[in-house]
Structure of FAD-binding molybdopterin dehydrogenase:
Amino acid sequence: MHPFTYTRVADIRGALNAGRAGGRYIAGGTTLVDLMRETVERPGTLVDISGLPLDEVTVTERGGLRIGALVTMAEAAAHSKVRTLYPVVSQALELSASAQLRNMATIGGNIMQRTRCTYFRDVTADCNKREPGSGCAAREGVNRTHAILGTSDACVATHPSDVAVAFAALEARVHLLGPDGNRQVPFADFLLRPGTTPQREQAIRRGELITAVEIPALPRPLRSGYLKVRDRQSYEFALTSAAIALHVRGGVIREAKVAAGGVGTVPWKLPAVERHLVGERPSESLWAAAAEKAASGAHPLQQNGFKVELLKRTVERQLRIVGGTK
C-alpha cells in the first residue's frame, strides 16, 4: 500500500471542498481499501464521509423510494419499505458478498465499485482499465467469467454489483452533489460501457458526491424479484443474474422491467424482452419466447459462450418465479 493522507469531514461542504482538491471519498471502504492494498488504486488523500447525514431511506412524494448513499447494504436490505415496495432490491442485496461486508458497505460505494476481473487486480497483467493503452489480457486469457454484452476491443470485464442490476431494471436515478450544485443522472447513463475509454467507469465529475439513489414510483401491484446464478451458493459473483419487475392488471402485463447481471460490462437492460412481455398474458410459452431475446447482440469469448444459453434460462426462470402462469 502506498502512503496517503486521511481526513474525516463533518459536513457536506467540507466533503465537497476536499473532493474538489482531489481527495477520494471513502465510507465503508470494502472495495477501495482492497484495491489500495493491491496497489491497483493509489489515492493521495482519503476523505472519510461516513459521518455525513446521507443514511436514510425515505418514500418520495410520488411513492418512489430514495435510498441515501451511506445507507449500508444490510440496512437497505432489511428496511421495511424496500422489502415491501421493491423486493428485487432487498433480494439483490442479500445475495451480495458476505453478511460482514454488507454490514459495512454502502449503497453509494456499491455502485462505485470496480470490476473483479483478475487481470485488473493483477498489476503485472495488461489492463486498459487500470493502465490505458496497455492491452486487455482477458481477451486471449482466462475469460470464462467475463462479459458477452457491451464489450469492446479495450475491455471485456463485467460489472460486479448485484443491486446495480436491480437499479438498472427499475430505471433508478443517481443524485449527485458537486461544485456545480445538484444534478440527477439516469442509472442507465451513470455506469459507462468501456468503449475506447474503459478507465472511465461512472459519469461522475471531479469533486462530486453521490447523495442518494432514487427509484421512481411504479404502477401497483408490482411483483419483483432477483435471481443469481453462480458457481457456488454463497460469497460468489454472478455468472448470470436477472432482476425483473412486472405490473399485471386484469390478467395482462401492463409494464415490464428487466435487466441482467454477470454478462455485461454494465448492468444490462433488456428492452427487447420488456417489449415482448407488455400487453400479453402470463404463460409458460410467453416466458420462453421473451427470454429468447435476452442475449441479443452477445459477443462471447473463447471460454464464456455458455453464458448465452445460461442468460436465456436465467431470465425465463425468473419470469416464471415473478410472473407465474395461469
In short: The first strand starts at residue 5 and ends at 8. The radius of gyration is 20 Å. The domain at 1-52 is CATH 3.30.43.10 (Uridine Diphospho-n-acetylenolpyruvylglucosamine Reductase; domain 2).
